Amino acid sequence: ELAPAKELAIPGPEHFNHLLILVEAQGEEAAWVELNNRLAPYGKLPYYLQLGTALVLKPGGPTFRTLPGSDPEESAEELITKLALGKVKEDPLAAKVQTTLISKPQASYINKIRLKDIDAFRRGLILQQVGNQFFPGAKVEKGTFTEIEVPGKPFRVDIQLMAPRFLIPAKDTLLLKPVLQPMSMVRSFIRSPQRKHPYHFTAQVVRRDRLEVDLGGGYEEVRLPKNAVLTSALGSFSLSFERKGETLIIEREAHLRPTRLPADEFQDLLQFCKSIDRLESQRIVLKPRAK
Question: CA–CA separation, 41 vs 80, rounded Å?
Fold first, then answer.
């Protein structure tokens, strides 16, 4: 027999299936400790629990508390890349690359702890995997995990590599990908183009990229995409292109915040995601410079 509707609206124990410890020391800010991940930084909750409702069991009776959120910068990821064209004689389409990945999310701190116990050979394999993540087929020439031993510092990887066939031939021109790791918004966050119920976006995303392309005197720009800025209830996105002498500078910045959208606003979110995917799929058009 079904319970009356008003009773179904009352949360039961099954709604609180994640065990946390609330530490309240006199004179200090309360800290929530997540017990399911022993490597998580003290007092840092995973994004999917932040701003949720906790049932606190304590002397004097149970109470409801809202779990704390986090500073958006604690979720920031930054990719800084310098790319030189025309430096590999045996492959005119290749690029010499120096890239730095800085990652602050909680999972990255956990990776730092794990890397401390990994030998040099396996670290080299991981560096090769990271290089191929951004540049398929890359040959990593040098790489380091920086400041692994320094507590509180973000996870950082510095890699020097050769990216084969980075330029894409297209008739008498060459295409260059301005976004090394697209966000793939529709694939990542939209399961269906229609929605009857509210949409709950739980992630906190802050992403900044800067790509500097040295044309090396051997290439000239035919077309740069236009700068773009998008905003929605989910957050903001910008992509800009600039030329300074023989260098192209591409910058991308995205801020997406946890939010709950009613079903009638879902189509606006869908268009926002599609627009980002479309902007990131653009290509810079180059051609070899006449000798």
Answer: 26
The beta strand positions in the chain, using DSSP E, are 20-23, 31-34, 53-56, 63-66, 76-85, 95-103, 139-146, 155-163, 168-170, 173-176, 199-201, 205-214, 219-223, 228-232, 235-244, 247-256, 259-261, 284-288
Nearest to 50 by CA among 28, 34, 29: 34
Has residue 234 got a pLDDT over 50?
yes
Residues 6+ apart with CB under 8 A from 74: 44, 104, 105, 106, 204
Distance separating alpha carbons of residues 140 and 159, to the nearest angstrom: 7
Computed from CA positions of residues 88, 217, 215, 219, in that sequence, does the dihedral angle turn out positive or negative? negative
Q: What are phi and psi of 174, to 5 degrees?
A: -130, 140
Q: How confident is the model at residue 13 (pLDDT cuts 50, 70, 90)?
A: low
> Of 101, 94, 92, 165, nearest to 133 (Cα)?
101
* Tally of CB atoms within 10 A around 213: 24
Identify the burial level of 166 via C-beta atoms within 10 angstroms of its C-beta, where 0-12 means exposed, 13-18 middle and 19 or more buried.
Answer: buried
Residues listed for the chain? 291
Residues in Cβ contact with 108 at an 8 Å cutoff, skipping those fewer than 6 apart = 154, 155
Q: What's the N-to-C CA distance of the chain in angstroms?
A: 85
Give per-residue pLDDT as tens, 202-228. Answer: 788 999 999 999 998 889 999 999 999
Query: Please, are residues 48 and 70 in contact by the beta-carbon 8 Å criterion?
Result: no
Structure tokens at 67: 């779990």
Task: Report pTM.
Answer: 0.81
**Strand order across the 205-214 sheet:** 139-146, 155-163, 95-103, 76-85, 205-214, 247-256, 235-244, 228-232
